[in-house]
Protein backbone atom coordinates (compact mmCIF):
# COMPACT_ATOMS: atom_id res chain seq x y z
CA UNK A 1 0.00 0.00 0.00
CA UNK A 2 1.47 3.43 -0.94
CA UNK A 3 2.37 5.72 1.93
CA UNK A 4 0.43 8.99 1.72
CA UNK A 5 2.45 12.12 2.45
CA UNK A 6 2.12 15.88 2.38
CA UNK A 7 4.25 17.40 -0.36
CA UNK A 8 3.15 21.02 -0.28
CA UNK A 9 1.05 23.51 1.65
CA UNK A 10 -0.22 27.03 1.20
CA UNK A 11 -2.73 29.39 2.75
CA UNK A 12 -4.05 32.91 2.65
CA UNK A 13 -3.98 35.31 5.55
CA UNK A 14 -7.09 34.86 7.69
CA UNK A 15 -9.30 37.84 8.48
CA UNK A 16 -12.43 39.72 7.47
CA UNK A 17 -12.20 40.47 3.76
CA UNK A 18 -15.54 41.76 2.57
CA UNK A 19 -14.07 42.50 -0.86
CA UNK A 20 -12.86 38.91 -1.48
CA UNK A 21 -14.88 35.88 -2.62
CA UNK A 22 -14.35 32.11 -2.54
CA UNK A 23 -12.59 32.20 -5.91
CA UNK A 24 -10.04 34.78 -4.78
CA UNK A 25 -9.29 32.99 -1.51
CA UNK A 26 -9.10 29.51 -3.07
CA UNK A 27 -6.91 30.61 -5.96
CA UNK A 28 -4.30 32.15 -3.66
CA UNK A 29 -4.06 29.10 -1.41
CA UNK A 30 -3.92 26.67 -4.34
CA UNK A 31 -1.16 28.61 -6.11
CA UNK A 32 0.97 28.64 -2.96
CA UNK A 33 0.48 24.91 -2.28
CA UNK A 34 1.32 23.86 -5.84
CA UNK A 35 4.45 26.01 -5.83
CA UNK A 36 5.51 24.56 -2.47
CA UNK A 37 5.07 21.00 -3.75
CA UNK A 38 6.85 21.73 -7.04
CA UNK A 39 3.91 20.45 -9.06
CA UNK A 40 1.76 21.84 -11.86
CA UNK A 41 -2.00 21.69 -12.22
CA UNK A 42 -1.64 18.84 -14.69
CA UNK A 43 -0.06 16.73 -11.94
CA UNK A 44 -3.19 16.98 -9.78
CA UNK A 45 -5.49 14.03 -10.42
CA UNK A 46 -8.35 14.87 -8.07
CA UNK A 47 -9.53 17.69 -5.79
CA UNK A 48 -11.20 17.39 -2.38
CA UNK A 49 -12.82 20.70 -1.50
CA UNK A 50 -13.94 21.49 2.06
CA UNK A 51 -16.47 24.24 2.69
CA UNK A 52 -19.18 24.49 5.32
CA UNK A 53 -21.24 27.63 4.96
CA UNK A 54 -21.18 29.05 1.43
CA UNK A 55 -24.79 28.06 0.85
CA UNK A 56 -25.91 30.25 3.75
CA UNK A 57 -23.42 33.12 3.51
CA UNK A 58 -22.82 33.53 -0.24
CA UNK A 59 -25.68 31.49 -1.69
CA UNK A 60 -23.34 29.18 -3.62
CA UNK A 61 -24.58 25.61 -3.42
CA UNK A 62 -23.83 22.25 -5.02
CA UNK A 63 -20.78 23.16 -7.16
CA UNK A 64 -18.63 25.08 -4.71
CA UNK A 65 -15.36 23.44 -5.82
CA UNK A 66 -16.11 23.71 -9.53
CA UNK A 67 -17.08 27.38 -9.29
CA UNK A 68 -14.30 28.38 -6.87
CA UNK A 69 -11.53 26.66 -8.85
CA UNK A 70 -12.67 27.30 -12.42
CA UNK A 71 -9.83 29.77 -13.07
CA UNK A 72 -7.00 27.79 -11.44
CA UNK A 73 -6.23 25.41 -14.30
CA UNK A 74 -7.87 22.57 -12.38
CA UNK A 75 -11.17 22.71 -14.28
CA UNK A 76 -12.06 19.30 -15.67
CA UNK A 77 -10.45 17.37 -12.80
CA UNK A 78 -12.61 15.15 -10.59
CA UNK A 79 -13.79 17.33 -7.71
CA UNK A 80 -15.57 16.35 -4.52
CA UNK A 81 -17.44 18.91 -2.42
CA UNK A 82 -17.10 18.10 1.28
CA UNK A 83 -19.34 19.72 3.88
CA UNK A 84 -18.83 18.53 7.46
CA UNK A 85 -19.27 21.54 9.72
CA UNK A 86 -16.03 23.00 11.14
CA UNK A 87 -14.28 19.73 10.22
CA UNK A 88 -14.93 20.14 6.49
CA UNK A 89 -11.28 20.79 5.61
CA UNK A 90 -9.92 17.92 7.69
CA UNK A 91 -12.64 15.61 6.35
CA UNK A 92 -11.53 16.47 2.82
CA UNK A 93 -7.96 15.68 3.87
CA UNK A 94 -9.05 12.33 5.29
CA UNK A 95 -10.63 11.35 1.97
CA UNK A 96 -7.59 12.52 0.00
CA UNK A 97 -5.24 10.48 2.15
CA UNK A 98 -7.48 7.41 1.81
CA UNK A 99 -7.52 7.69 -1.99
CA UNK A 100 -3.73 7.95 -2.24
CA UNK A 101 -3.16 5.08 0.20
CA UNK A 102 -5.54 2.93 -1.81
CA UNK A 103 -3.45 3.56 -4.91
CA UNK A 104 -6.32 5.30 -6.71
CA UNK A 105 -4.27 8.46 -7.27
CA UNK A 106 -0.62 9.51 -7.05
CA UNK A 107 -1.19 13.22 -6.43
CA UNK A 108 -4.31 15.02 -5.20
CA UNK A 109 -5.21 18.43 -3.81
CA UNK A 110 -7.09 19.36 -0.65
CA UNK A 111 -8.64 22.81 -0.41
CA UNK A 112 -10.41 24.19 2.65
CA UNK A 113 -12.01 27.58 2.17
CA UNK A 114 -14.62 29.77 3.78
CA UNK A 115 -16.16 33.21 3.36
CA UNK A 116 -17.96 34.01 6.62
CA UNK A 117 -17.85 37.80 6.83
CA UNK A 118 -20.96 39.54 5.57
CA UNK A 119 -22.30 43.08 5.80
CA UNK A 120 -25.23 41.61 7.72
CA UNK A 121 -23.76 39.81 10.74
CA UNK A 122 -27.04 37.97 11.27
CA UNK A 123 -26.29 35.95 8.15
CA UNK A 124 -22.85 34.96 9.46
CA UNK A 125 -24.19 33.95 12.87
CA UNK A 126 -27.09 32.18 11.17
CA UNK A 127 -24.64 29.87 9.41
CA UNK A 128 -23.30 28.69 12.77
CA UNK A 129 -26.80 28.30 14.18
CA UNK A 130 -27.44 25.59 11.57
CA UNK A 131 -24.58 23.42 12.86
CA UNK A 132 -26.86 21.69 15.37
CA UNK A 133 -29.68 19.16 15.01
CA UNK A 134 -32.58 21.53 14.39
CA UNK A 135 -35.00 18.86 15.61
CA UNK A 136 -33.23 18.68 18.96
CA UNK A 137 -34.31 21.30 21.53
CA UNK A 138 -31.53 23.64 22.57
CA UNK A 139 -30.48 23.60 26.23
CA UNK A 140 -32.02 26.36 28.38
CA UNK A 141 -30.41 29.74 27.72
CA UNK A 142 -28.60 28.68 24.55
CA UNK A 143 -29.06 31.09 21.66
CA UNK A 144 -30.96 33.65 23.72
CA UNK A 145 -28.15 35.51 25.46
CA UNK A 146 -25.05 36.12 23.35
CA UNK A 147 -26.72 35.79 19.96
CA UNK A 148 -24.29 32.95 19.17
CA UNK A 149 -25.64 29.45 19.65
CA UNK A 150 -22.18 27.94 19.81
CA UNK A 151 -20.72 30.42 22.30
CA UNK A 152 -23.68 29.77 24.59
CA UNK A 153 -23.03 26.02 24.23
CA UNK A 154 -19.31 26.48 24.93
CA UNK A 155 -20.11 28.69 27.93
CA UNK A 156 -22.39 26.05 29.44
CA UNK A 157 -19.65 23.44 29.00
CA UNK A 158 -17.11 25.81 30.55
CA UNK A 159 -19.26 26.39 33.64
CA UNK A 160 -19.68 22.65 34.12
CA UNK A 161 -15.97 22.03 33.58
CA UNK A 162 -14.91 24.70 36.07
CA UNK A 163 -17.16 23.20 38.72
CA UNK A 164 -15.36 19.86 38.43
CA UNK A 165 -11.74 21.09 38.10
CA UNK A 166 -9.27 23.02 40.18
CA UNK A 167 -9.31 25.84 37.67
CA UNK A 168 -10.68 29.36 37.32
CA UNK A 169 -11.35 31.85 34.54
CA UNK A 170 -7.79 33.17 34.72
CA UNK A 171 -6.72 29.83 33.23
CA UNK A 172 -8.96 30.53 30.24
CA UNK A 173 -7.28 33.93 30.00
CA UNK A 174 -3.84 32.27 30.02
CA UNK A 175 -4.88 30.31 26.92
CA UNK A 176 -5.75 33.59 25.20
CA UNK A 177 -2.46 35.24 26.20
CA UNK A 178 -0.53 32.29 24.76
CA UNK A 179 -2.67 32.35 21.63
CA UNK A 180 -2.27 36.07 21.00
CA UNK A 181 1.50 35.86 21.44
CA UNK A 182 1.65 33.13 18.81
CA UNK A 183 -0.66 35.11 16.53
CA UNK A 184 1.56 38.17 16.83
CA UNK A 185 4.33 36.11 15.21
CA UNK A 186 2.17 34.64 12.44
CA UNK A 187 1.80 36.78 9.33
CA UNK A 188 -1.34 34.84 8.36
CA UNK A 189 -3.14 35.31 11.69
CA UNK A 190 -6.31 37.36 12.03
CA UNK A 191 -5.34 38.79 15.45
CA UNK A 192 -1.74 39.89 15.86
CA UNK A 193 -1.68 42.03 19.00
CA UNK A 194 -0.41 40.44 22.23
CA UNK A 195 -2.64 40.74 25.29
CA UNK A 196 -2.60 40.19 29.04
CA UNK A 197 -4.65 38.14 31.48
CA UNK A 198 -6.24 41.34 32.78
CA UNK A 199 -7.23 42.52 29.30
CA UNK A 200 -8.80 39.17 28.50
CA UNK A 201 -10.79 39.06 31.73
CA UNK A 202 -11.93 42.68 31.30
CA UNK A 203 -13.03 42.34 27.68
CA UNK A 204 -16.77 42.37 27.01
CA UNK A 205 -18.74 39.45 28.47
CA UNK A 206 -20.23 37.34 25.67
CA UNK A 207 -21.73 34.42 27.55
CA UNK A 208 -20.73 33.81 31.16
CA UNK A 209 -17.86 33.00 31.77
CA UNK A 210 -16.65 33.66 28.21
CA UNK A 211 -15.37 37.15 27.48
CA UNK A 212 -14.86 38.43 23.94
CA UNK A 213 -11.18 37.48 23.80
CA UNK A 214 -12.06 33.91 24.82
CA UNK A 215 -14.21 33.39 21.70
CA UNK A 216 -13.01 32.64 18.18
CA UNK A 217 -14.11 35.19 15.61
CA UNK A 218 -15.88 35.06 12.27
CA UNK A 219 -13.42 35.31 9.38
CA UNK A 220 -12.46 34.42 5.84
CA UNK A 221 -9.58 32.40 4.41
CA UNK A 222 -8.37 29.36 2.55
CA UNK A 223 -5.70 26.68 2.97
CA UNK A 224 -4.52 24.03 0.50
CA UNK A 225 -2.49 20.83 0.80
CA UNK A 226 -0.91 18.62 -1.86
CA UNK A 227 -1.20 14.96 -0.82
CA UNK A 228 0.67 12.35 -2.82
CA UNK A 229 2.44 9.02 -2.60
CA UNK A 230 5.90 8.98 -1.05
CA UNK A 231 7.45 7.88 -4.34
CA UNK A 232 5.81 10.77 -6.22
CA UNK A 233 7.12 13.30 -3.69
CA UNK A 234 10.65 11.96 -3.85
CA UNK A 235 10.57 12.01 -7.66
CA UNK A 236 9.87 15.74 -7.42
CA UNK A 237 12.69 16.26 -4.94
CA UNK A 238 10.32 17.13 -2.10
CA UNK A 239 11.03 15.92 1.43
CA UNK A 240 7.75 14.29 2.49
CA UNK A 241 5.81 14.83 5.70
CA UNK A 242 4.30 11.46 6.55
CA UNK A 243 0.62 11.02 7.37
CA UNK A 244 0.84 8.37 10.07
CA UNK A 245 -2.83 8.41 11.02
CA UNK A 246 -6.08 10.16 10.21
CA UNK A 247 -9.15 9.15 12.18
CA UNK A 248 -12.65 10.53 11.79
CA UNK A 249 -15.49 9.85 14.24
CA UNK A 250 -19.10 11.02 14.27
CA UNK A 251 -21.09 11.48 17.45
CA UNK A 252 -23.31 8.52 18.35
CA UNK A 253 -26.11 10.99 19.06
CA UNK A 254 -26.85 9.92 22.62
CA UNK A 255 -26.12 11.73 25.86
CA UNK A 256 -23.07 10.78 27.95
CA UNK A 257 -21.34 8.77 25.20
CA UNK A 258 -17.55 8.91 24.99
CA UNK A 259 -16.50 12.25 23.51
CA UNK A 260 -15.70 12.09 19.80
CA UNK A 261 -12.34 13.82 20.37
CA UNK A 262 -11.37 11.06 22.80
CA UNK A 263 -12.47 8.28 20.45
CA UNK A 264 -10.81 9.83 17.40
CA UNK A 265 -7.51 10.48 19.19
CA UNK A 266 -7.42 6.94 20.62
CA UNK A 267 -7.91 5.54 17.12
CA UNK A 268 -5.22 7.81 15.70
CA UNK A 269 -2.69 6.90 18.41
CA UNK A 270 -3.36 3.22 17.74
CA UNK A 271 -2.93 3.60 13.99
CA UNK A 272 0.28 5.60 14.36
CA UNK A 273 1.63 3.29 17.05
CA UNK A 274 2.47 6.13 19.44
CA UNK A 275 1.11 7.78 22.57
CA UNK A 276 0.52 11.42 23.49
CA UNK A 277 3.84 11.69 25.32
CA UNK A 278 5.61 11.32 21.98
CA UNK A 279 4.02 14.45 20.49
CA UNK A 280 6.07 17.60 20.03
CA UNK A 281 3.52 20.01 18.60
CA UNK A 282 -0.29 20.07 18.48
CA UNK A 283 -2.92 22.15 16.70
CA UNK A 284 -6.28 21.65 18.39
CA UNK A 285 -9.78 23.05 18.03
CA UNK A 286 -9.90 26.01 20.43
CA UNK A 287 -13.18 27.53 19.20
CA UNK A 288 -13.30 28.96 22.72
CA UNK A 289 -10.50 29.27 25.26
CA UNK A 290 -11.94 26.62 27.61
CA UNK A 291 -11.97 24.13 24.71
CA UNK A 292 -8.17 24.13 24.62
CA UNK A 293 -7.97 23.08 28.26
CA UNK A 294 -10.67 20.44 27.79
CA UNK A 295 -8.79 19.01 24.83
CA UNK A 296 -5.55 18.79 26.83
CA UNK A 297 -7.40 16.07 28.75
CA UNK A 298 -9.37 14.64 25.79
CA UNK A 299 -6.17 14.09 23.80
CA UNK A 300 -4.23 12.66 26.73
CA UNK A 301 -1.78 15.57 26.90
CA UNK A 302 -2.32 15.46 30.66
CA UNK A 303 -4.35 13.45 33.15
CA UNK A 304 -7.97 14.35 33.83
CA UNK A 305 -8.03 17.32 36.17
CA UNK A 306 -4.50 18.49 35.28
CA UNK A 307 -5.28 20.89 32.42
CA UNK A 308 -5.00 24.00 34.59
CA UNK A 309 -1.63 22.86 35.87
CA UNK A 310 -0.47 22.23 32.30
CA UNK A 311 -1.37 25.70 30.99
CA UNK A 312 0.19 27.30 34.08
CA UNK A 313 3.43 25.32 33.60
CA UNK A 314 4.23 26.92 30.25
CA UNK A 315 4.84 23.50 28.69
CA UNK A 316 2.26 24.18 25.98
CA UNK A 317 3.68 27.58 25.05
CA UNK A 318 5.83 28.46 22.06
CA UNK A 319 8.87 26.21 22.06
CA UNK A 320 7.45 24.27 25.00
CA UNK A 321 7.66 20.57 25.65
CA UNK A 322 4.43 20.09 23.71
CA UNK A 323 3.73 23.34 21.90
CA UNK A 324 -0.05 23.73 21.44
CA UNK A 325 -1.55 25.99 18.76
CA UNK A 326 1.69 27.75 17.81
CA UNK A 327 -0.19 29.19 14.83
CA UNK A 328 -2.37 31.14 17.26
CA UNK A 329 -5.14 28.58 16.94
CA UNK A 330 -8.73 29.42 16.16
CA UNK A 331 -8.67 32.19 18.76
CA UNK A 332 -5.91 34.21 17.05
CA UNK A 333 -5.11 32.68 13.66
CA UNK A 334 -8.86 32.76 13.01
CA UNK A 335 -11.66 30.31 12.29
CA UNK A 336 -13.04 30.43 8.73
CA UNK A 337 -14.61 27.10 9.46
CA UNK A 338 -14.14 25.17 6.20
CA UNK A 339 -10.48 26.23 6.10
CA UNK A 340 -9.62 25.57 9.74
CA UNK A 341 -8.75 21.87 9.55
CA UNK A 342 -6.53 22.39 6.52
CA UNK A 343 -4.85 25.41 8.14
CA UNK A 344 -3.94 23.29 11.17
CA UNK A 345 -2.12 20.89 8.86
CA UNK A 346 -0.36 23.73 7.07
CA UNK A 347 1.04 24.92 10.40
CA UNK A 348 2.10 21.44 11.49
CA UNK A 349 3.80 20.77 8.16
CA UNK A 350 5.80 23.96 8.56
CA UNK A 351 6.66 23.05 12.16
CA UNK A 352 7.94 19.62 11.12
CA UNK A 353 9.97 21.17 8.30
CA UNK A 354 11.49 23.72 10.68
CA UNK A 355 9.87 26.59 8.74
CA UNK A 356 7.80 28.21 11.51
CA UNK A 357 10.22 31.01 12.34
CA UNK A 358 9.81 32.46 15.83
CA UNK A 359 6.91 30.06 16.45
CA UNK A 360 9.11 27.01 15.86
CA UNK A 361 9.08 24.18 18.37
CA UNK A 362 12.74 23.08 18.31
CA UNK A 363 13.29 19.51 17.13
CA UNK A 364 9.66 18.89 16.20
CA UNK A 365 9.29 15.46 14.60
CA UNK A 366 5.78 14.30 15.57
CA UNK A 367 2.63 16.43 15.37
CA UNK A 368 -1.09 16.03 15.95
CA UNK A 369 -4.11 17.99 14.68
CA UNK A 370 -7.54 17.77 16.30
CA UNK A 371 -10.45 19.40 14.46
CA UNK A 372 -14.12 19.08 15.33
CA UNK A 373 -17.41 20.57 14.27
CA UNK A 374 -21.12 20.87 14.87
CA UNK A 375 -23.02 19.85 17.99
CA UNK A 376 -25.10 16.75 18.62
CA UNK A 377 -26.43 15.40 21.92
CA UNK A 378 -24.05 17.47 24.02
CA UNK A 379 -20.88 16.76 22.03
CA UNK A 380 -19.24 17.78 18.79
CA UNK A 381 -20.97 16.10 15.86
CA UNK A 382 -17.65 15.09 14.25
CA UNK A 383 -13.97 14.98 15.17
CA UNK A 384 -10.92 14.36 13.00
CA UNK A 385 -7.50 13.61 14.47
CA UNK A 386 -4.42 13.46 12.25
CA UNK A 387 -0.86 12.52 13.20
CA UNK A 388 2.09 13.66 11.07
CA UNK A 389 5.80 12.95 11.33
CA UNK A 390 9.12 13.32 9.56
Automatic annotation (TrEMBL):
Gene3D superfamilies: 3.40.47.10. It is an enzyme of class 2 (transferase). Residues 261-380 form the Thiolase C-terminal domain. Transmembrane segments: none annotated. Its EC number is 2.3.1.176. Residues 5-231 form the Thiolase N-terminal domain. It comes from the Bacteria. Keywords: Lipid transport, Lipid-binding, Transferase, Transport. It holds the Pfam family Thiolase_C_1. InterPro entries: Thiolase, Thiolase-like, Thiolase_C_2, Thiolase_CS, Thiolase_N. PANTHER family: ACETYL-COA C-ACETYLTRANSFERASE (PTHR42870), NON-SPECIFIC LIPID-TRANSFER PROTEIN-LIKE 2 (PTHR42870:SF1). This is propanoyl-CoA C-acyltransferase.
